[in-house]
Amino acid sequence: MSSPDFLLKGSTVTVVVLELHQYVPDAFPGLLAERVAQAPALFQGSPVVISLEPLSADDGTAVDLGGMLDHCRDQGLRPIAFRAVPEALQSAATDTGLALLPAGGGRGKPLEMPAESAPEAPEIKVRTEQQPVSSVRPTRTITRPVRSGQQIYAEGGDLIVLAPVSEGAEVLADGNIHIYGALRGRALAGVHGDASARIFCQHMDAELISVAGHFLLSDALGDSILRKPAQVSLDGDVLSVSAL
Amino acid sequence: MARIIVVTSGKGGVGKTTSSAAIGTGLAQRGHSTVIIDFDVGLRNLDLIMGCERRVVYDFVNVINGEATLNQALIKDKRTEGLYILPASQTRDKDALTEEGVAKVLAELKQRFDYIVCDSPAGIEKGAQMALYFADEAIVVTNPEVSSVRDSDRILGILQSKSLRAREGQDAVKEHLLLTRYNPARVSAGEMLSVADVEDILAIPLLGVIPESQDVLKASNQGEPVILNSEALAGQAYSDAVDRLLGEDRAHRFLDEEKQGFFKRLLGGRG
Ligand SMILES: Nc1ncnc2c1ncn2[C@@H]1O[C@H](COP(=O)(O)OP(=O)(O)OP(=O)(O)O)[C@@H](O)[C@H]1O
Ligand SMILES: [Mg+2]
């Protein structure tokens, strides 16, 4: 509303990365549907980067990128970019209109599914991005409620929220997240890969919690935890939520 | 110094215009010169609820476009001394309200009035953002149901990030929760959220709870703000809310089911 028509800003977002290990046109739609069904709330409308990095050189030529994008969209995903496109697919990838990203330095971890997850489909791995962990730890302190539609990110350190985090709001930190109020939205700690990061809150009613790329959705929270003071930490490869 | 108060909600039909009319009237009744502005360009509702629809000649957009002076467009309320209405245009689209235009009109109104009450359109887009942009205080009108609470939460986020006060890093817009269409019987039956539930989620101070009442509909059909009906519980609840807005202490009323209604039901009455 004020004078400039727009501002260009840099911003960090957490995105789902679909790593394509091989593309079997007949199998792909079914495998993807299965994967999405495990956590529909997470995948509905979520931006996705498709990484072609793991494709072997000879597989590369055979992939029908347009068809694959259609399958992704049919499942409610929103592909936004390809990463590490092999030489043979460059022009086909450009034609899709998506952005092309260079090969990622990120060492993402497989996305943690809710407890009832089916065994992993071998061809499709979903992970989130990580970068090297910084040792500088400034803390960001928020004193007002974080409202639906708002996103707060504590870059390089911890986040302290002295108020509730509403449903539809998202708080992220490279370090720990402390919420001295109710957590009804999404909280993602250690978003750049710090596996020792934790989430603490006074009233656990989250839509989604994540530490270093391992996710849990609200339906995975048991009655012993729900609406109670709780902490979330990463125990090996398993996200554990315990009462405080 | 004049205070600009926006009455906003996100969700439509929750009682913004009803509340703007009642609160604006209440402020004027208490001796504060007040103007209520209808920001709902294209729909124009405030003049109906205030019963002055026949006297609309020029409107807010005419003033912004320099087609009429403020004096020509302001309608003096016939019942309440010191109260004026600035009606919205019914014919123009919402883009007619420009930031510069609104700023200019508000600056002029600030010279003349103690309170400027802005009746916001529904939604969280441009029209609603324009209504709240210049606000010093916000009355967030919420019904005791999940979707309304969620929208109020979003509009509170917008107040924090997109208002002029937020942009310029001044003191934050002062927030008030006004819970309307509250029906204690339906709360007890678990069909509606309770006052405590809503306060817990939105975490802002409670300005008032207005009971669901036929008197409100009757009042708007007659073009008389319900606050003028001191018999009506909704009218009394709005009076309390205005007193609180002015810094007075008033205990909250009408939060529980009416005793009378309870006995009526006990005796098998029609409730
Ligand atoms: N306390 C109440 N009890 C009963 N009915 C009410 C109450 N408050 C408002 N209403 C009714 O709800 C309807 C919508 O009210 P109003 O026009 O004030 O809402 P609004 O938020 O301004 O709507 P819009 O978003 O369309 O501008 C009207 O019919 C009004 O009479
Ligand atoms: Mg209205």
Structural description of this entry:
In chain A, β14 (208-211) and β15 form a beta hairpin. Chain A has helices spanning 28-37, 40-43, 57-60, 65-74, 90-95; strands at residues 16-20, 47-51, 78-83, 99-101, 109-110, 124-128, 140-142, 151-154, 159-161, 170-173, 177-183, 186-189, 199-204, 208-211, 214-217, 230-235, 238-243. The N and C termini of chain A lie far apart (45 Å). Chain A is 14% helix and 32% strand. Chain A folds into two domains: 1-131, ACT domain (Alpha-Beta Plaits, 2-Layer Sandwich), CATH 3.30.70; 139-243, Pectate Lyase C-like (3 Solenoid), CATH 2.160.20.70. By secondary structure, chain A is of the alpha/beta class. In chain A, the strands form three sheets. In chain A, strands 4-3-2-1-6-5 form a six-stranded mixed beta sheet, with helices on one face. Chain B is of the alpha/beta class. Chain B has a single domain, classed as Rossmann fold (3-Layer(aba) Sandwich), CATH 3.40.50.300. Helices cover 42% and strands 16% of the residues of chain B. Chain B has an eight-stranded mixed beta sheet with strand order 3-4-2-5-1-6-7-8, with helices on both faces. Chain B is globular, with a radius of gyration of 18 Å. The N and C termini of chain B lie far apart (48 Å). In chain B, 47% of the residues are buried. The model of chain B has no long low-confidence stretch (mean pLDDT 93). Chain A binds chain B through residues 1-2, 144-150, 163-164, 166-169, 181-182, 184, and chain B through 99, 129-130, 133, 150, 153-154, 156-158, 160-162, 167, 172, 200-203. The structure holds adenosine-5'-triphosphate and magnesium ion (MG). Adenosine-5'-triphosphate is lined by residues 9, 12-18, 40, 45, 121-122, 180-181, 210, 212-213, 216-217, 220, 234 of chain B.
